[in-house]
Here is the input.
Amino acid sequence: MAAIAFTEEQIERYSRQIILPEVGGVGQRKLLAARVLVIGAGGLGSPVGLYLAAAGVGRIGIVDSDRVDLSNLQRQILHATRDLGREKCTSAKQTMESINPDVTVVPYPVRLTSSNILDIISGYDMVVDGSDNFPTRYLVNDACVLAGKPLSHAGILRFEGQATTIVPGRGPCYRCLYPEPPPPGLMPSCQEAGVLGATAGVMGAIQAAEVLKLILGIGDLLVGRILICDGLTMSFRTVRVERDPGCPICGDSPSVTELIDYDDFCGLRVPEEQYHE
Amino acid sequence: MTAVKPDKSIDLRGTPCPLNWVKTKLRLEEMQPGMVLEVVVDEGAPAHNVPRSVQAEGHKILEVGHSADGVRVVIERC
Here is the structure.
């Protein structure tokens, strides 16, 4: 049972979380052994990636096919002005590994599709959705349900955000709440409606906390609850939600039995920069 | 003072707060309940803080002995 001893540097680096009675050395070892996939190195993926790396989550995958654009930097705090034009997942890897050399960041500079997602998530214990488009959001939800992987979901727009944690078999999935994607063009994107960078920070930090709790097996997750944040009034509320037995993917007789690429399915063409917020 | 025979001992003199407690905690985690750990810490804040943290986490302080060489804290792992 002899666990590998922490180095002096690790003891000091993680001291403030090892001190927590709910973490300790036992919890720190769980974090170092954990493998988390983050979808998107954008507004949400940035705080998620930074906090997971800082906490010592040992292996973090980052999926993003975009390159860093000047308009990203107001909220996508993994990237700096010097990174303009670089692949976001490469820039993310460099930032996260420079914060904590204990962490290995695996970059996936690809667009997630029905044909690659199951293969990519198979190497991870859980998934964080930091995407900002419906085709990816449904694809990630469906893949996590099919693969039985826990998923932290969040969405942001303007000053508002919402977050929930999906643990297949233990509570509702994203489709239990919203069975089908909205028609293209109905919901405004951050590109059209704008978003406060700090809104992304608040919601991304909530996702990071959920992931760390899930790894540590502590506290109460946002399973069966949606946390809604209104940043303008700075008020939070929680709405209880239940698994829908008629859910198209996680229900008792699912109608969705294979992954769907909605952008092809709906004929929706989303501009490149709208992906992976 | 009757000396309790410790199963393990660490010298944490020169180690500042809260690292002295972090190292104590990590060592306690490796031990079985009922085993005894002796730590030697500096006078002042460490002598005050380490026993307090030990108790807050549910372990038992068996002995705190002050001497010219530092403060000997004897802990039963609970």
User: Anything to note?
Assistant: The two ends of chain B are 23 Å apart (CA to CA).
